[in-house]
Amino acid sequence: MNDNAALLAGISEYEDRTDRLHIDIAVSEGDVIGLGTMKLRVIPAPGHTKCCTAFWCEEEKLLLSCETLGVPAGGGMVMPCYMVGYGLAMQSVERLAALGAEKILTPHRGLLEGEACTAFIENAVYWNKEFMRRAREGRRAGKNEAELAREFKELFYTPFMAEVQPEKAFDLNLGYTIPMLIREIDGE
To answer: At what angle do helices 167-186 and 145-156 cross, to 10 degrees?
Structure first.
């Protein structure tokens, strides 16, 4: 947490522990990390950021995910959260979806198991594609950045989303995603 994150969360005082954070080991694709009795395989999952990483435990069919899959917005919706390009993000989303996870630990909603896990992954694939489809359609109709941002915020910034992501953080993510999509769409 930093001062900005604390303010967004309505926290005025907190203990800064960032000086305790350090890198134990550097990992690459395919590396296996032992976590107690679990073995986690490193899977690069660029999309939200270039360095997003997921971890896969084959024995447990457990995916420790990152925001590249998106953030649950309620009602089966998953807000896409990519800032480095649609194509790269979709490669990661489809790669993670193909693992066949039965459990997924999501950054904003915690552990999802069974049907909830399956539904989240299916919805992540659908909404990432649908987000781009709607953005393309909007651009063809002449919508600008502000209009697209407003449309997507009305769709995805639900009370369910607000429980886990402050509005300013949502707007910041959308403020990166929409211009990037416009550049990709206009360059097609």
So the answer is: 130
Q: Which residues contact 2 (CB under 8 A, 6 or more apart)?
A: 16, 18
Q: 104 is written with which tokens?
A: 């997924």
Q: How far apart are CA 57 and CA 101, in angstroms?
A: 9
CA distance 54 to 69: 10
Q: What share of the chain is helix, strand, coil (3-state, %, to 5)?
A: 45, 20, 35
Q: Coil, helix or strand for 6?
A: helix
Neighbours of 50 (CB within 10 A): 11
Alpha carbon separation from 42 to 14, 53, 96, 114 (Å, rounded):
32, 7, 12, 23
Q: What mean pLDDT, rounded, does the chain reach?
A: 92
Distance CA 28, CA 16 (A): 29
* Strand, helix or coil for residue 131: helix
One-letter amino acid at 37 equals T
Q: Which of 93, 92, 118 is nearest to 103 (CA)?
A: 118
pLDDT single digits (tens) 10-28: 778 878 877 888 888 899 9
